């Protein structure tokens, strides 16, 4: 009893700077992280938050490690953009992103048609990029977005040249280059309730594993819309479905955008509820290791560029003020952390009751 009270004190001391990542870890997750893009590095106020390990325990370069930015011409590698964000991560974890993807792919890869040529291009790319970051990446998104919403394979240059074998091949190369990194398949619209795409992703992961590839995790991007995001139950069911084939799950690129702007208090509260469902789902599933937001501040979100008229998807607004969603997420993490700290007591009580029940046959 005394011990539990003592353990709770450091969590609730007023004035202690302890935020999203601090409580996420106290609640049992490995990290609460964020993407950081190169364009934000000169913004001192933003960077003070991005560098705060209590706020974010993991950093993902939003663009710097992508193919177009690491091997713009064949065999010639550059890591300036990725390194600049890796420096921000410092001693913290990095979720590294991404090795084989159809977007932000330099034109020269599009003109490769033969299987053997594509196989060696993928080998060279993964080997050089992963070697450069070896030891710095908690995980790598090895293959990104290989499936369409209807469950069919995306007709990427990699698929065109090698069929689905490009997936197992990519993971095999990745495992040999940095055996310590967790290797993820990452995609969007797979954080929903079990649908054709979710089934197709699980099936392709299983087939690649059967072909000898190590795939440790499935990353669910979770670019969602306010008001139509999934409930905790749906999200949890989907994760349990994936958990049958991989050891880890993570929400990797979370943002929950308003589809109409400007927004009022009610929409902001709905956004907060939508974020909370996702956080609760991760906390409820043993294999869910962490949550990464696809930037934490609206001015660096990709949403307005990609979906004109939509946005304000992040936890902080353009003035770096915390939104209701931030406060709600933090409070869920704090409660989960407090429950976890108090858990031994609850377990002890449950055991005692069970013992009493077992000892008293009349009670059955
Ligand atoms: C986005 C970046 O945030 C933008 O800056 C860039 O212009 C396009 O890509 N899925 C992914 C991410 O896996 O890499 C994408 O990031 C968003 C969708």
UniProtKB/TrEMBL annotation:
<feature type="signal peptide">
    <location>
        <begin position="1"/>
        <end position="18"/>
    </location>
</feature>
<dbReference type="Pfam" id="PF00331">
    <property type="entry name" value="Glyco_hydro_10"/>
</dbReference>
<protein>
    <recommendedName>
        <fullName>Beta-xylanase</fullName>
        <ecNumber>3.2.1.8</ecNumber>
    </recommendedName>
</protein>
<dbReference type="InterPro" id="IPR044846">
    <property type="entry name" value="GH10"/>
</dbReference>
<keyword id="KW-0378">Hydrolase</keyword>
<dbReference type="InterPro" id="IPR001000">
    <property type="entry name" value="GH10_dom"/>
</dbReference>
<keyword id="KW-0732">Signal</keyword>
<feature type="domain" description="GH10">
    <location>
        <begin position="23"/>
        <end position="332"/>
    </location>
</feature>
<comment type="similarity">
    <text>Belongs to the glycosyl hydrolase 10 (cellulase F) family.</text>
</comment>
<dbReference type="InterPro" id="IPR017853">
    <property type="entry name" value="GH"/>
</dbReference>
<keyword id="KW-0119">Carbohydrate metabolism</keyword>
<dbReference type="GO" id="GO:0005576">
    <property type="term" value="C:extracellular region"/>
</dbReference>
<dbReference type="GO" id="GO:0045493">
    <property type="term" value="P:xylan catabolic process"/>
</dbReference>
<keyword id="KW-0326">Glycosidase</keyword>
<comment type="pathway">
    <text>Glycan degradation; xylan degradation.</text>
</comment>
<keyword id="KW-0624">Polysaccharide degradation</keyword>
<keyword id="KW-0858">Xylan degradation</keyword>
<keyword id="KW-0964">Secreted</keyword>
<dbReference type="GO" id="GO:0031176">
    <property type="term" value="F:endo-1,4-beta-xylanase activity"/>
</dbReference>
């Amino acid at each position: 009893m005394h011990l539990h009270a003592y353990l709770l004190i450091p969590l609730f001391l007023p004035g202690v700077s302890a935020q999203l990542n601090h409580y996420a870890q106290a609640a049992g997750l490995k990290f609460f992280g964020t993407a950081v893009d190169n364009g934000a590095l000169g913004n001192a106020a933003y960077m003070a938050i991005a560098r705060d390990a209590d706020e974010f325990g993991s950093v993902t370069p939003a663009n710097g490690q992508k193919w177009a930015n690491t091997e713009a011409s064949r065999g010639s590698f550059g890591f300036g953009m990725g390194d600049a964000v890796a420096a921000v991560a410092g001693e913290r974890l990095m979720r590294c992103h991404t090795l084989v993807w159809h977007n932000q792919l330099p034109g020269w890869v599009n003109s490769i048609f033969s299987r053997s040529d594509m196989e060696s291009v993928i080998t060279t790319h993964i080997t050089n990029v992963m070697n450069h970051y070896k030891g710095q990446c908690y995980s790598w998104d090895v293959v990104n977005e290989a499936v369409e919403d209807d469950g069919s394979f995306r007709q990427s240059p990699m698929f065109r040249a090698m069929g689905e074998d490009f997936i197992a091949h990519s993971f095999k190369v990745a495992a040999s280059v940095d055996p310590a990194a967790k290797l993820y398949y990452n995609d969007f619209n797979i954080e929903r309730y079990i649908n054709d795409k979710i089934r197709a992703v699980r099936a392709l992961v299983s087939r690649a594993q059967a072909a000898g590839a190590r795939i440790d995790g499935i990353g669910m991007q979770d670019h969602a819309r306010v008001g139509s995001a999934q409930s905790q139950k749906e999200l949890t069911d989907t994760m349990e479905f994936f958990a049958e084939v991989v050891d880890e799950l993570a929400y990797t690129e979370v943002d929950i955008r308003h589809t109409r702007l400007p927004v009022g208090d009610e929409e902001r509260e709905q956004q907060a509820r939508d974020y909370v469902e996702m956080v609760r789902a991760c906390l409820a599933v043993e294999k869910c290791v962490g949550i990464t937001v696809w930037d934490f501040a609206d001015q660096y979100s990709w949403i307005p560029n990609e979906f004109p008229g939509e946005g304000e998807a992040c936890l902080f607004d353009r003035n770096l003020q915390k939104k209701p969603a931030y406060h709600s997420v933090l409070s869920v993490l704090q409660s989960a952390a407090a429950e976890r700290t108090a858990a031994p007591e609850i377990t002890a009580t449950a055991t005692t009751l069970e013992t009493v029940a077992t000892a008293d046959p009349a009670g059955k």
